[in-house]
Amino acid sequence: MPAQTNSRVAAGTIGPFKFIQTGAMVASDPTSNPPFTGGELTALQCTGAGVEILGIGAEWTNAMMGTLIQTSLLPQGFPAATKGQGIRVYGDGEETIIMVGSGYNVVNDQLLVSDASGNAIPLNPTATTPVQWIGARAIEAGIAGDVIRVSVVLRNYVSN
Fold first, then answer.
1. Cα(126)–Cα(108) distance, rounded to whole angstroms?
2. Tens of pLDDT along 120-143?
3. pTM for this one?
4. Gyration radius (Cα) of the chain, Å
5. For the chain (length 160 residues), average pLDDT per consecutive 10?
6. What is the rounded distance in angstroms from the CA atom of residue 10 to the CA atom of residue 13?
7. Is 132 left (phi over 0), alpha (psi -120 to 50) or beta?
8. What is the spatial distance between Cα 51 and Cα 135, in angstroms, rounded to a whole number?
9. CB neighbours of 59 closer than 8 A, spacing ≥ 6?
10. Is the peptide bond before 2 cis (omega within 30 degrees of 0)?
11. What pLDDT score does 31 carry?
12. 103 Cβ partners below 8 Å, 6+ apart?
């Protein structure tokens, strides 16, 4: 059964369709709107395979309607959320899209982890990182820069 809708508050800038990790905030941050009182419901864009993945961020941007057409920029040029804004996080068992990381190819049914930019790259079972956090399973294939459909699968992988 798919997870419930998972809403978080961005602790920094998060791009659309990126792997998401728990954010860290100071005990009180009065500069944010609304003010934060803790970091447990905050989120950041993932920073690599060794970071626990919460899910995949929203498929859309926070840009005003019409901005994308007017500027001819791709959605990746606009954030899904900036510090203090809410963001939808797709959880375990849900389907969504994610971008394939630079220099990688993904095949159908492959387990995916995060690169340093929150993009999807294939799990490397021989990596020297003792624990990698799996965030998704590919539903379709893609090459670097493609946006592919995935099923969110959240678990860790411990290499021997």
1. 20
2. 999 998 888 788 999 999 999 999
3. 0.80
4. 16
5. 66 91 63 54 88 89 54 60 88 95 96 96 87 95 96 89
6. 7
7. beta
8. 10
9. 16, 17, 96, 97
10. no
11. 56
12. 144
| Residue ranges per structural domain of the chain | 6-158
Three-class HEC string of the chain: CCCCCEEEEECCCECCCCEEEECCCCCCECCCCCCECCCCCEEEECCCCCCCCCEEECCCCCCCCCHHHHHCCCHHHCCCECCCCEEEEECCCCEEEEEECCCCEECCCCEEEECCCCCEEECCCCCCCCEEEEEEEECCCEECCCEEEEEEEEEEEECC
Q: Which tokens belong to 36?
A: 């934060």
pLDDT for the residue 155 = 93
Distance (Å) of CA 37 to CA 9, 54, 71 = 11, 20, 37
What is the Cα–Cα distance from 127 to 38, expressed in whole angstroms? Answer: 34
